[in-house]
Amino acid sequence: MKIKILAEYITKFGELWDKSLSDLLKEAATEVISKADIKPSEIEAVFVANMGSGILENQLHLGALVSSFFPHHPPAVRVEGACASGGLASVMAQQSLLSGRYKTVLVIGAEKMTDVSTSAATKFLSSAADYTREYGSTFPSLYALLTQAHMQKYGTTRDMLSAVSVKNHRHAMKNIKAQFHRELTINDVNNSEVIANPIRLLDCSPISDGAAAIILTTKQTNSPEIVSYGHASDSLTLADRKSLSSLQATKDAISQCMSNTKIKLNDIQMAEVHDCFSVNEILAIEDLGFFKKGHGGEATLSEQTTYGGKIVINPSGGLKACGHPVGATGVKQLAFISNLIRQDEINVGLTHNVGGSGATVIVHLLSK
Amino acid sequence: MKIKILAEYITKFGELWDKSLSDLLKEAATEVISKADIKPSEIEAVFVANMGSGILENQLHLGALVSSFFPHHPPAVRVEGACASGGLASVMAQQSLLSGRYKTVLVIGAEKMTDVSTSAATKFLSSAADYTREYGSTFPSLYALLTQAHMQKYGTTRDMLSAVSVKNHRHAMKNIKAQFHRELTINDVNNSEVIANPIRLLDCSPISDGAAAIILTTKQTNSPEIVSYGHASDSLTLADRKSLSSLQATKDAISQCMSNTKIKLNDIQMAEVHDCFSVNEILAIEDLGFFKKGHGGEATLSEQTTYGGKIVINPSGGLKACGHPVGATGVKQLAFISNLIRQDEINVGLTHNVGGSGATVIVHLLSK
Predict the structure, then answer these.
(1) What are the backbone angles phi and psi of residue A104, rounded to the nearest 5°?
(2) N or C terminus of chain B: which is more exposed, having fewer CB within 10 Å?
(3) What is the DSSP letter of B292?
């Protein structure tokens, strides 16, 4: 049974002060159904990805909220795995299709983060860490440990880290949905404020509002296919990890993804990876196998991860420049790559969605 | 492909001030694996049900938290649909099994509610309603509307409502895991404090801590079978409902459940239904089809829903007397009925788990 992406839609990402969470969900649901050119009643089930509306707005039960947009009230569920919620919702949706229960389902992710202060958003995001063993840690501080480990072990430099943000901001220039349309230089990143040494402000993905949706179907269509997915976990706390210079769950997820397909890593032309902080893009392109361990920073600095290089990483601008409304991100990655395939810009693409500091990783392989 | 419940475990429910959420999850995970007599490494995926640890403890990412208990870190997800989270996690787990991805998975639900004040817990629970259209409504007030509608339309009396709590407290007397071991009289309930007229204190399920777990497998075993499940939604807000005197999602879910099985409603000997407030047990036994519409209250008062009657409703004591740690409830219902079948006390049982005021309903049919 093949799973196709019948349609995809991404709202504008950014500081959307005139839109509520419900507005964003409604826009994404309405527009993706319009793009798919199906009746709303053809949606048999709804999988909602969201991380924080409980904490941020005391609103849970988002499955039912989205189901309420439809006169026939399809069965619905909310799926959460921190910043990997979007990828996870797609996994749950695919399992429902492969179980034979449904033929066409909606996967929708959204997050509304800018209605609270930066400190409240930072505290909220720390809910993805281990509350008993990493209490008080912010995510910049946790990723600072990973950054230091990579710099010490592999000689990754400040310029290499900065090259991630520079490239992603450049990519975002042509993505009208992106939060930022502003080119950066290596010096801009190098000289931005220190957040948690060695992480600087322009290493960090922003606080964002946004939503994204895809419609998955097992019906016959020429739409892009989800060839396979990988879903892996690792210890919630960094203290229990064997290594701080790679994410084991990324390795496990890509291994699952590639194990039952004729597609090779070299066939992948573009990938949306989880660059919540600069180091995580470098970890991703190494752990996914696109570049040798320890060479991800150098590859980025030498423009091997942009147009004209070995593979285009984060054509959307990534979490850094397109924005990171956390529950939406995994769905947006799928929507963005699916659209590139639909537009014949690429034949094979990949998405890589990380929860927390790598305790949940979802990888999807997509092709024409 | 048949889905069996290889083992089940329920922690003590109650005000467990010496146990954290993590303690409860760990106890349930450890004990259910011990009961199943399998190696932890045989658990291929984990489905965690929880409603509120984000709001109550700023802890999300519980999938990864539970996965971290296992040396092999199985892929994990958290599923949320308000108080129906437990039933929903079982649905997602079954879909994963039927998709062919896994053969044996863990479904685990937990909630830790007593570390906050009653008003904070009440506010948290209101997150299951529509935050833009029912803002400020507490769940007792929403269910008070449903209670009034049923009383007005069908002449359901105060004594009939009270009979639900009296019967459930009596059932809980022999359930060592139950939160309350105290028999009530109709007068006790009738004279308890008004919470939201006509709902009184002893119509309300309590604020509880607790966890429950089941292991589902498609491998050959003599364990109890999940014959079918129904998963239905309705409008999130009561204002959009066609009727306030029944829950359409319960009707839809039982209809799905019974559509592909030779088992008849009359074969069902016991059912755990979602008696968050007295009226909801009456709605449930009518909407599930055990009693004619409007006759649920009378049936309860005339002891048709206890031992010696037509069907035993809530042998565990239900949400009212066994307790209602919201994310655990749906899993506890399955664990309780599964154990009755395993102990040869019944051949066929049913569980009925409601989210919010009926916007999500999950029904499971279990048999020997």
Answers:
(1) -140, 125
(2) N
(3) -
CB neighbour list of residue B169: distance below 8 Å, 6 or more residues apart? B180, B182, B183, B184, B317, B320, B321
Q: Is B119 on the interface with A (CB under 8 A)?
A: no
Which H or E run includes B116? none
Indicate the number of domains in chain A: 1
Give phi and psi for B352, each to the nearest 5: -140, 115
B54: in domain: yes
> What is the CATH number for B28?
3.40.47.10
ipTM: 0.98
Q: Give Cα A191 to chain centroid, integer Å.
A: 27
What average pLDDT does the segment B2-8 reach?
Answer: 98
CB atoms B55 and A54 under 8 Å: yes
Beta carbons of B59 and A98 less than 8 Å apart: no
The answer to whether A76 and A48 have CB atoms below 8 angstroms apart is yes
Q: Which domain holds residue A88?
A: 3-117+207-217
**Judged by CB atoms within 8 Å, which residues 67-86 of A form the interface with B?**
67-68, 73-82
> What type of residue is B28?
A
Q: At what angle do helices A326-342 and A85-98 cross, to 10 degrees?
A: 60
Distance CA A193, CA A321 (A): 17
Q: What is the residue-wise DSSP string for B56-105?
A: HHS---HHHHHHTTSTT---EEEEEBTBTHHHHHHHHHHHHHHTTS-SEE
- Chain B segment 236-265 residues within 8 A of A by beta carbon are 236-237, 240, 249
A173: exposed, middle or buried (C-beta count within 10 Å: 0-12, 13-18, 19+)? Answer: middle
* Whole-number Å distance between alpha carbons of B170 and B180: 10
Residue B273, pLDDT score: 98
Q: Are A63 and A46 in contact (CB under 8 A)?
A: yes
Residue numbers in B near A96 (CB within 8 A): 92, 95, 99
What pLDDT, in 10s, does the model give residues B209-265? Answer: 999 999 999 999 999 999 999 999 999 999 999 999 999 999 999 999 999 899 999
Q: What's chain A look like in SS3?
A: CCEEEEEEEECCCECCCCCCHHHHHHHHHHHHHHHHCCCHHHCCEEEEECCCHHHHHCCCCHHHHHHCCCCCCCCEEEEEECECHHHHHHHHHHHHHHCCCCCEEEEEEEEECCCCCHHHHHHHHHHHCCCCCCCCCCHHHHHHHHHHHHHHHHCCCHHHHHHHHHHHHHHHCCCCCCCCCCCCCHHHHHCCCEEECCEEHHHECCCCEEEEEEEEECCCCCCCEEEEEEEEECCCCHHHCCCCCCCHHHHHHHHHHHCCCCCCHHHCCEEECCCCEHHHHHHHHHHCCCCCCCCHHHHHHCCCCCCCCCCEECCCCHHHHHCCCHHHHHHHHHHHHHHHHHCCCCCEEEEEEEECCCCEEEEEEEEC
Residue A282 placed within a domain: no
The DSSP-derived string for B165-214 is: HHHHHHHHTT-TT-S------HHHHHTSPEEETTEEGGGBPPP-EEEEEE
pLDDT tens for B322-366 read 999 999 999 999 999 999 999 999 999 999 999 999 999 999 999
C-alpha span between A163 and A96 (Å, rounded): 40
The reply to whether B109 falls in a domain is: yes
What is the distance between the alpha carbons of residues A168 and A161, in angstroms, rounded to a whole number? 12
Judge whether B324 lies within some domain: no
Q: How far apart are CA B269 and CA A352, in angstroms?
A: 48
Amino acid identity at A60: L
* Tally of residues, chain A: 368
| Contact call for B81 and A63, based on CB within 8 A | yes
